[in-house]
Every structure is written in C-alpha cells, then in structure tokens.
Amino acid sequence: MSEPNASSETRAGGGLRRRRRRPRRAAVTGDGFEGRGALHRHLRLVAVQLRLRVLAALEYRTGFWSGGVLSLVWSIAGTVPLVVALEHRADIAGWTPWALCMLVGCHMIITGLFGALVQPSLYAAMDDIRTGALDYLLLRPVDALVSCLVADFEPWCLVEAVAGVGLLIVGMVGSGVHPSLPQLLTMALVLGCGVMALYALAVLALSLAFAALELQNLAYLMEAMLDFARWPISVFRGPLRALFTFVVPFAIMTSYPPMALLGRLDASAAVGALVTAVVLAGLARATWQRALRGYTSASS
C-alpha cells in the first residue's frame, strides 16, 4: 500500500513507478504566508534592507572605512568646547571630566545611530514624496512608515556608535563606577527611550514634509540641534531645560543614561522619560497617518 500524503503509484511500461508528491505551498492570506504574520514580514523587510545596504557599502571598502573614520573624527572634534570649558573649571554644572566622557559616549551613540539609520532614510523618504515614488511603498504589503524608516542605511556611521560605547566604558572605568543591575537596566531603558524619541522626531519631520517640500530642511535642523545634546541638561535653565527634556528630549538621549549609571537618576525621571518617549511616538504616528490621508501622488 502507498503511504498517504507521501507518494502515489502509477503504472507505466508494465511496471509500477512511484511518484513523489510535491509539498503543498504555503497559502497566502491577508496576514502573509500561512503561519507568518505582519511582524514576520516587517522584520524580514528590515533585515533585507540592512543586508543590501551593507553589501553595497562593502563593495567599496576604502569608502566604507574612510566614511566611518571621518564621522568619528567629526564627532570627536565637536567635544572641543567641552575640553576648553574644563580647562577653566573643575566641572561643568556638577559633571566631572569622567562623567562628561560618559555623556559624550552616549552622544556619539545617538549621533552614530542617527547618521546610520535615521538620517539616510529620512532623506530618501522625503525624496520619494517629492518624486511620487512613495506610491510604490504604499503598495507594499507592509506598513508604509516602516518602509520609509528603512529606506536607506549608511553602515559606516555605526563606527561612531561603536566608538561611543567604548568611550562610555572608559568614562565608567575612570569614574570608578560599578553600576548595579537595576542601574544598568535603567540606563538601557532611558537610552532606548532616547532612540525612540529620536525616531519620533524624524517621523514628525517627515510628516510635515507632506505639507510643504521646503520643510525638508527640518532634517538638517535635526542634525544641527543634536549638537545641543553634547552638553549636560543641568547646563540649561528655565524654558530651555523644559524644551530639551520633554519636547526635543536631548536630556533623555544623552544625559539620563550616564546619570543612571552614576546613581543620580531617580525613578520618577526614568518614568518621565518613558512617558515622554511613548507620547512622542504616539503623536508622530498620528501625525503620519493624518499626513498620509492627505497625500496625493506627484504624478497625479
């Protein structure tokens, strides 16, 4: 007897010939392939986009490393004002040199991620809006915002982020800090909130580009304003401090992580960082959906 669902027998040339059945292909449903939902599609899209950009960048290895070194040198050069200030003062608003080293490390992590992941995709998505190529992204079976946020990738900028991690560790060793597990988890939480807030600001800038293409300059404004995150939040007073904590939360991106490692960040500040990041992300998502509803193709 033939085994069911495995093979069948047919008679040909006076004998029996076993014919193996082909496996049944996965059925396509509204959520993608059977057993694979929207999360799998989005993760696969992100992985493929990153892989393609890395392979493209590695075709020119000299350009890859030179771009990474230049971005690293540019970021280190931006610390000159801090060094000059420390030559005249023992600390800056209560931050010792080693604590500032930790802060600069966090700043390099943020700017490295911005230059590698956020800024290239922001420019590419704004260009798609201008040319009408956004139509092709809207036809994909994935979220259009995810497609825009992974539209481009500059892997050499991650050299700066890796150097920032090293500088953060050097600052911890120099400060003699031995963070506990709760402090490490708090640092990871607020740093993740900072990255979320950075993406939320990018989505807000992208959404405003639907209204007027001249607002594409907001991407350059974001890059310029990141220089303020190089300074401790305690330097700022009054409205500027509130602005850089809750509206454009540079404090969450760069000041809060070293404060968590140094034991200076209380629980209320950590909760406030989480709430601020979530609110910004929700506002960015709602603004994106509103902008997308009013979008008309450039070719229409």
Write structural notes for this entry.
- With 300 residues, the protein is mainly α.
- The protein has one domain (35-293).
- 65% of the residues lie in helices and 5% in strands.
- β1 and β2 (15-20) form a beta hairpin.
- Residues 1-35 have low confidence and may be disordered.
Contiguous uncertain segments of 5+ residues: 1-35
N- to C-terminal separation? 63 Å
| Structural class by secondary-structure content | mainly alpha
Characterize the largest beta sheet: strand count, sense, and whether it forms a barrel.
2 strands, antiparallel
What does the radius of gyration come to? 25 Å
Give the overall average pLDDT.
Answer: 80
Order of helices and strands: EEEEHHHHHHHHHHHH
User: Total strand count, please?
Assistant: 4
Number of domains: 1
The amount of beta strand, in percent, is 5-15%
